[in-house]
């Protein structure tokens, strides 16, 4: 089953690197998923009144083309039953610019809940038997214990919850974004040092697994390390815990970029002095 609609980016969507932030694309995708529920006979009014929510289990995102304010984007959503079964949904969503070029590609597996109770969303359409295509998310491996990690504390705001009192995927991505900032601060990569090293990195995409609901307003433990370095890329890993229980985990891809040349480069020896002991696999 398919849906498409048009979304427009705003100045408010820009991040510190003056590009549209990744969370904007996930918010566009979330709108597409709720539009699909409406097509399945669950209108917005019912979704709101009965607190019907789509709880993310696993996900993938990849960003292909930077965007700026005022960009008109087409959000294409395809829904199929999850290959995992168990009544879950598999979402494949592409965001394209006006020339048809791919801007972002997102996938999620979700389960529907009504006021916190599992709720059946039956995908019965003429194309419901259509194969889901390549599944781009996976179950991430636990930390091997081979390297050092940075442990930070993050109090998630009560106000980041949605209409159903839950943290949607975009709100949970924010935890990982904060974790990356706390990591670079704690290892000494200040803005001045980044300029001196002529090295920064761009967030290119992620795979993530969500295991349990994040409790509202609590202080979370964010554990951050680098899984590996592959030429001009490195891969962050982060675990989010509360009272020792693993709630979320993510692996994200970072493109290493020269500030002065504005193009990709390998990690320099000086850069490695800061991150080397946090790298899990050589």
TrEMBL record:
The keyword Hydrolase applies. Gene3D superfamilies: Hotdog Thioesterase. GO terms for molecular function: fatty acyl-CoA hydrolase activity. SUPFAM superfamilies: Thioesterase/thiol ester dehydrase-isomerase (SSF54637). Keywords: Hydrolase. Pfam families: 4HBT_2 (PF13279). This is Thioesterase-like protein. The lineage of its organism: Bacteria, Pseudomonadati, Spirochaetota, Spirochaetia, Leptospirales.
């Amino acid at each position: 089953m398919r849906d498409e609609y048009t979304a427009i980016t705003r100045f408010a969507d820009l991040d510190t690197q003056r590009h549209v932030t990744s969370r904007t694309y996930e918010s566009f995708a979330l709108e597409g998923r709720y539009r699909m529920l409406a097509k399945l006979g669950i209108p917005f009014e019912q979704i709101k009144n009965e607190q019907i929510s789509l709880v993310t289990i696993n996900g993938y995102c990849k960003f292909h083309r930077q965007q700026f304010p005022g960009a008109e984007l087409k959000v294409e959503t395809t829904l199929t039953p999850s290959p995992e079964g168990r009544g879950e949904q598999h979402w494949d969503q592409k965001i394209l610019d006006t020339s048809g070029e791919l801007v972002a590609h997102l996938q999620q597996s979700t389960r529907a809940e009504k006021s916190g109770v599992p709720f059946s969303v039956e995908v019965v359409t003429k194309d419901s038997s259509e194969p889901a295509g390549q599944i781009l998310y996976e179950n991430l491996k636990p930390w091997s214990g081979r390297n050092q990690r940075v442990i930070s504390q993050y109090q998630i705001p009560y106000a980041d919850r949605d209409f159903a009192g839950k943290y949607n995927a975009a709100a949970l991505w924010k935890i990982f974004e904060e974790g990356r900032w706390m990591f670079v601060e704690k290892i000494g990569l200040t803005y001045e040092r980044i300029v001196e090293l002529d090295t920064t990195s761009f967030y290119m995409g992620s795979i993530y697994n969500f295991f349990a609901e994040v409790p509202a307003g609590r202080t979370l433990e964010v554990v951050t390390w680098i899984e590996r370095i592959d030429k001009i890329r490195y891969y962050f890993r982060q675990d989010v815990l509360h009272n020792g229980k693993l709630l979320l985990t993510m692996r994200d891809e970072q493109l290493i970029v020269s500030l002065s040349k504005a193009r990709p480069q390998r990690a320099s020896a000086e850069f490695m002095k800061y991150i080397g002991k946090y790298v899990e696999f050589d």
